[in-house]
Amino acid sequence: MTRIVFIVLGVLAFGLFVRLWVGPGSYPDMQRLEEKIAQQNAANDEQAEVKRRLQMDVVGLSKDDEAVEEHARSELGMVRQGETFYQVILRADQQVTAPGSQAKLTPHVE
């Protein structure tokens, strides 16, 4: 009778040991979940920083007309009346800025 009890306890212990190392809730599964949590926390921190910068922009734009003008100039390309806008395109940047052109631009050598 004791032999049967020991065998049953041994099988149960083996089953618990296998469950501890394989399957859901096992040690490797917990490590994977902890890595996912760390990655998500890093992504959350990045998003919090973006949110903080955007909130600072909103506060600045609501209080300062010069900030609104700066955004209009840099992001929308707006100019004041009487101003002339000049865009300088470097030879190295011509391929990038001309999306419709299929011909390669070669430098002119004299």
UniProtKB/TrEMBL annotation:
<comment type="subunit">
    <text>Part of a complex composed of FtsB, FtsL and FtsQ.</text>
</comment>
<protein>
    <recommendedName>
        <fullName>Cell division protein FtsB</fullName>
    </recommendedName>
</protein>
<dbReference type="InterPro" id="IPR007060">
    <property type="entry name" value="FtsL/DivIC"/>
</dbReference>
<keyword id="KW-0812">Transmembrane</keyword>
<dbReference type="InterPro" id="IPR023081">
    <property type="entry name" value="Cell_div_FtsB"/>
</dbReference>
<keyword id="KW-1133">Transmembrane helix</keyword>
<comment type="function">
    <text>Essential cell division protein. May link together the upstream cell division proteins, which are predominantly cytoplasmic, with the downstream cell division proteins, which are predominantly periplasmic.</text>
</comment>
<keyword id="KW-0131">Cell cycle</keyword>
<feature type="topological domain" description="Cytoplasmic">
    <location>
        <begin position="1"/>
        <end position="4"/>
    </location>
</feature>
<comment type="similarity">
    <text>Belongs to the FtsB family.</text>
</comment>
<dbReference type="Pfam" id="PF04977">
    <property type="entry name" value="DivIC"/>
</dbReference>
<keyword id="KW-0472">Membrane</keyword>
<keyword id="KW-1003">Cell membrane</keyword>
<keyword id="KW-0997">Cell inner membrane</keyword>
<feature type="topological domain" description="Periplasmic">
    <location>
        <begin position="23"/>
        <end position="110"/>
    </location>
</feature>
<keyword id="KW-0132">Cell division</keyword>
